[in-house]
Structures are given as structure tokens and as C-alpha cells.
Amino acid sequence: MIQQAKTILKQTFGYDEFRPLQQDAIKNVLNKRDSLVIMPTGGGKSLIYQIPSMIFDGLTIVVSPLISLMKDQVEQLDQFGVPALFLNSSLTSEQYRMNVNRLRAGEAKLLYLAPETLMLDKTRDLLSTIKVDCFTIDEAHCISEWGHDFRPEYRQLAEVRKDYSESVCLALTATATPRVQDDIQNILEMKDSGRFVASFDRQNLVLKVADKENPLDQILDFLYTRSNQSGIIYCFSRRQVDELAFDLKNDGHSVLPYHAGLSDEKRMRNQEAFIRDDARIIVATIAFGMGINKPDVRFVIHHDMPQNIESYYQQIGRAGRDSIRADCLLLYSYSDRQKIQYFINQKEGAEKEVAEKHLDALINYLEFDGCRRIPLIRYFGESYKKTQCGMCDNCLREKGDEEDYTIQAQKFMSCMVRSEQLYGSYHIADILRGSSAKKILENGHDKLTTYGIGKEWTKNQWVQFARLLIRKGLVEKNPQHGSLLLTENAKRVLKGDERVTGILDRTQTAADIVVRAKTTDVVENRYNENLFEKLREKRKELADEQGIPPYAIFPDTTLMEMSYYYPQDEHSLIGIYGVGDTKLKKYGDMFLNIIRKFTRENEVTSRSRVIRQKAKKTASKKKHHLIGKEFNKGKSIDHLAEQFGVKTVTIISNLKKYLDEGNKLYPTGILKASGLSERKQDEVLATMKKLGPELLKPIYEDLNKEVDYNELRILQLAYIAGRRK
């Protein structure tokens, strides 16, 4: 049966290979063994029941709380030629009756239901006359009170499930800690079940946290280079949603609001406009997004803090579902934290305990100074194997960008000690700045030895610096009063035994970081944008004619491949990602005509013959592994830059990543990329030996700023590679 599943994967859905764990989970379901599947958003959970539904003789029921998702999935399945229906409150009585009749006539392989619809006597009576082979529960974390989105009506599914004792039970979710996973299996009595937990690492998401200073300006800066991209911006309150949507619209952005204060009709209209690319940006409360299956969301911004890591993970999971790079920016301020704490304080007992733990975990993530994926992945019970991901703000900042703030740290913490650790960062900043504020004079703080010793910085810089000290674990906040307290680690700094380095400004929102984060994938970076836009226009035209989202026809990934490989016939088009038999027959000629005309008019050479070969090669190995191995075979850095269509600095970055994973590189070949004389190279390497190679700024300054950072990075790589011989 698994071979049949592979055939359906290619012929119906247009995919060459299963993603990790998909095949194992599908095999388990086909063998009628209950299964719990935990996969991140965009990881391919839907195929785990959609493919078996086409193999089973009977019906597959899919229980989901997301009405918008049901409609979306049924529309997409229709495009793939898979017969599917849904029953929920959004249907008119006539539509409902038609779907029931089609169901009775055996015209559907899949039936999507809301839990409330499934509980109705008429629904249970209807389904009692139909053979059900698979009983699927989507968003299964809603069953557990330890989950972030507990829904009491979901608990009743355990009882309803007994109606289908002969059916295989499949529970799916994107966000479940180990405790929630156990809870789901216990409640559904999945005693002899398989548990399939995919990695929670969404490798294509760039994770960034910035201190919230002027949020509107920060968001406008972020959007400036993303004029044609789809994105979601989350806000804490309805008022904030309306204000931000108004401001962005005034700045010329295609934007709509979404929150519970709007009428049902208005919300649905705005959501549809976003899904169908009639509006580029949705500004929303957390009410938006559940069940949004739009694969080409290129960014998610949190204007305000989410309430917990599960919510954050689920919301950023709406970006980059097509596996193309997407940006996730969270603006963080202490006042947002206080808002969440206020609501937690209204709770009692176990509910308050759970909320406190959720907040602590979120703050740990936001203030973490290393790779962001380490605390994020760890929260879900998974160990992150690397020290750097290369796709978060902390990893993307070069070590050489860090400054030495030891003197400022000693000033700030000494001032805390002399004011008896009873005040917050704003008061400490006022003392250091020599302020004549009433509170300073009343407390006699103008008499302290630290009064006025920090005039070299603005008040805002000192407040920002307090956040850096917190992230470094040198200072912590009193949870009750907000005053700053020294930790044990601070003593070594005050004594001069330890230095403090870091990056003070976390307010920038993407300009240089985006450039360094950019993927080196050839197709994504080198597809023909003019052809891509022509194909997008055709896709939108076809989607509007059918009243469906553009991505239901083809996702951006498919159009990018078409705009890179320029397929000329059906044989080569079927090798493109996401082109199955049904879509080939339905849309093949229309898209091929556009591609042929474009290549003819622009004298472009087709890459049709390499489509399959290229797909296999890139699927089997990561890019930096390929670059590392090609380099060790004797290819120069310049040769590799030309081969992969990137700059030499990108090759250096990939070789560094390859080296950081414990692999070896031959240092001689690296030094050939340097433009420095042998004498100067030796001088730089001697300085690295003296100061250590990790931080480039001290090396840069020790060399009187005569060697630029690009050269230093080449020699840093050669130095580290030489130590590993």
C-alpha cells in the first residue's frame, strides 16, 4: 500500500518525495494503527490523512475547529481532483442538504466537520449508515487543558470516537509539549498507538526580536523592502489593530484589519481578500490565522508580545509554509510583559500556575542571548543539536559586531549597589546622567559617587543597556516591584574578572540582517522575476474566475521553478514541484504558452533537462555541505561563488557553517582567497593567536583598523580550519 501512496503523492499532488516522518505515519494509518502526529505548521500533516483517504474503501472524517480551513482545504483538494466535502454552520440550508446527499451517494472520500456539527444527533445518525475507515482529529492540542488553546467541546470527542471503534484514529497538531502529547493519547485512549514527532525547527524562518521603541517607524522600515509581499501583523487589542491598519494604509500599503469587533461578514470579507491576494497585509488580533493555509506569507510581525510560546510558534508558523524563506519579527517591551502579567494575576489555582510557566518560558526565549532556536525547540521537548542556526538575529550578527561594554556595566551595576537595588532602569539612568529630577534629589542620589558618571550616553541608551545586562544574566527584575537586582554572575564583572560584550541596539528591523540571512538556494535567488510576475498574473486571473485562492492553483514555489527552469513541454513541466497529473491537464498548456512565448521573445535557454537531476541533488544534501565538500575537492572560493551563483562572502559564510558543524577544511585553499600579502596575513594570524579568533572587533582595532572585516573573516576561517587539522 505504501507504493500506492507514493504514486498518489506524485501523480495527484505533484511531489517527488515524502517529507520526514510522512511516509512512516501514512504507513501506520494504512495498517489501521492509531497515530498521534506532531508536525510544525507547513510540515505536511494534511497528506497523512488525505493520501490514505484515497486508498481506503470507506470515508475519512476530519474534525477541525477551523471553518475557514475546511473551505480552503476542500477547494484545494478539488483542484487536485480529490472528492471532499464539509459540513458546518457556514453553509446555507440548501448547500448543507446537497452535501448530505452527495455524502450518502458515496461521492466523497473526505468529510470535514466542526466538533459541534459532529455532536449533533442528525450528523451521528447520518454517519452511522456510512462506512468510516479513518477518524481524524486536527488541532488535537485543543483536547488537553495543558495546551494553549484548550476547548471543552473537544473533550467530548473521546466519547464520539467510540462510534468508530473499527476506524483508525489519527490525531494531529503542530504545537504540543511532551505533557500535552501524553494527555491527547490518554484522553483518546490510544493505547497501542504510534507517536510521530517531527522536528519543531522551521529552518526557513528567520527569527528576530527587537526592542520596541517606535513601533510604527520600525514596522514601516521593515515593510519598506517588502512592498509586494504578503504578511500578518499581530496586535494585542482591537484598538491597536484599527490604528495600525489606518496608519499603514495612509502610508500606501495594501492592508485590512481583522478582530472580533468587526461583523462576521466584514471579517470573512477581509480574510478572503488576504487569501486571494486582493490585500497584501492583515493587521489582526490573535482571532486571525487559525486555519489560514496561505503558503506564501512572507512575514509575521508581532507588534505586541504573544501570551506564550505555543501561540508565538503557531502564529509564526503561518509564514513560509511553502518552505521559502520568511521573516518573523517580534517587538518586545517591558510594558507588554506587564499587560500579560496583569491578566495572569486575575487567574487562580492551576490555571494561574500554567500561565506563569508559559510567561517565564516566553521571557527566557525573548531575552536569550544565543541562538534563538535553542530555547524555542527545547520548549517542545526537542534538543537542538547546533550552537548556531544562521537564521536568527543573534546568529546572524557577526561576533565582530559586538562591542565591549565592561566599563559601562561596572558603572551601571555600581550605581545599582549604591542606590541599594531598589530602583528600575529609568531611575538608574537618571543618576548616571546627573539628572536634577525631584525623585533624585529627594532620595539624596545626587550625593552618590556614581552621580553624573554616565553623561556619555543618553537616558534611552542606558535603559537599553539595562536590557542587555538582563539578557546576559547579570541583572534581573524584581517581579513584584520592577526594581533591578544583581545576580551572582555580576560580582565577577564588578571585580574586573570578567568582561561584558554584546550588541546594544536591537531596534533595527531587518535592513542588513535580511541581506545576510538570505538563502543561497539558486532557484529562489535566480529565477526570472519578469516571467514570475507574468505567471502570477495568469494565476490570479484563473483564481478569480473560479473564486478560489491563487495558491490553490500553484504555490509561489512552483512559479519560481517555472521561472528558473523554463520548461517547454508537458514532460518537463511534470518535473516541476507541485505539478501533478490533474493540474497538468487543467493548467499545463496555459502556463507553458506563457513560458514558451517569454523564452522566444527574450532568447532564453531552457533548463528543462536538468529539472529532475537538480531536484534530486538539492533534496539529498544541504547547500553548505555541498560547498564544503566541493571546496575540499580542490575548487577555489571564486570558482564556487560562480558555480553557485553567489558572492564570495556567501561562500565564506557557508564554509564557516560547515566548519562549525565539526567538519574539516583545508586552510591553504582559504588563504588563496585573501588579497593580503603573505607578510600581512602572518601579522593578522599572529594577532588572532594572541587575542583569540572568535571576536573580530578587538583584532580589527589591534591592527589599527587597517584590515577590513571581509579579509578578517577569510583569515578567521583559515585560522580555525588550521587548528582542526
CATH class of the largest domain: Alpha Beta
Strand tally is: 17
Strand content: 5-15%
Mean pLDDT: 85
Total helices: the number is 37
Give the helix/strand class.
alpha/beta
CA radius of gyration: 28 Å
For CATH, the homologous superfamily of the largest domain is named as P-loop containing nucleotide triphosphate hydrolases
**Strands across the major sheet, in which order?**
3-4-2-5-6-1-7
Percentage of helical residues? 40-55%
The CATH architecture term of the largest domain is 3-Layer(aba) Sandwich
Low-confidence blocks of residues? 510-520, 614-621
Write up this protein:
The structure is a single chain. With 725 residues, the protein is α/β, with parallel strands linked by helices. It has five domains: 2-197, Rossmann fold, CATH 3.40.50; 205-400, P-loop containing nucleotide triphosphate hydrolases (Rossmann fold, 3-Layer(aba) Sandwich), CATH 3.40.50.300; 403-502, Arc Repressor Mutant, subunit A (Orthogonal Bundle), CATH 1.10.10; 522-607, HRDC domain (DNA polymerase, domain 1, Orthogonal Bundle); 621-723, Orthogonal Bundle (Arc Repressor Mutant, subunit A). It is 50% helix and 10% strand. It has 37 helices and 17 strands. The strands form four sheets. Strands 3-4-2-5-6-1-7 form a seven-stranded parallel β-sheet, with helices on both faces. A six-stranded parallel β-sheet has the order 8-13-12-9-11-10, with helices on both faces. Helix 5 links the parallel strand 3 and strand 4 (110-113). Helix 2 runs parallel beside helix 3 (47-55), helix 20 (425-433) packs across helix 22 (459-471) and helix 35 crosses helix 37 (709-723). The protein is globular and about 85 Å long. The protein starts with a helix and ends with a helix.
